[in-house]
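#structure-requests
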Amino acid sequence: MPISFYTEDTPFLLKNKTQIRHWIKAIAKENSKQIGQISYVFCSDKKLLEINKQYLNHDYYTDIISFDYSIKDRLSGDIFISIDTVHDNAKKFKVSVVTELRRVIIHGLLHFIGLKDKTKQDAILMRKAENLALKKYCILFHVEQN
């Protein structure tokens, strides 16, 4: 399957996988991209910290790490998401866990599309693209954003 979902060291279960796949493909298409092979791995803070140290030489917690294997307009890669940090950030930003999870899921895809978030200006553009994608999800599936 071009878009796969896995869990590692956490009891997390992703709901609405078919809708999420459809949404990811729609966002890729809006950006003139195709989906190659994308794997989402939901894990704990501990696991993501290990990945951050091992592959990026960073010794801090984060919500997402993406490894981009895209070739031209065909998006491929691995996206690791800490469910622990998603829960913490949902509280911090006063949004539902579902909304924060969607934001992080699409954030990884937006990196593959070419958006960055290291500078303040890039982070503003990334947040705008995330918000547009979240609105698109709500429109596609007739749900309210919370």
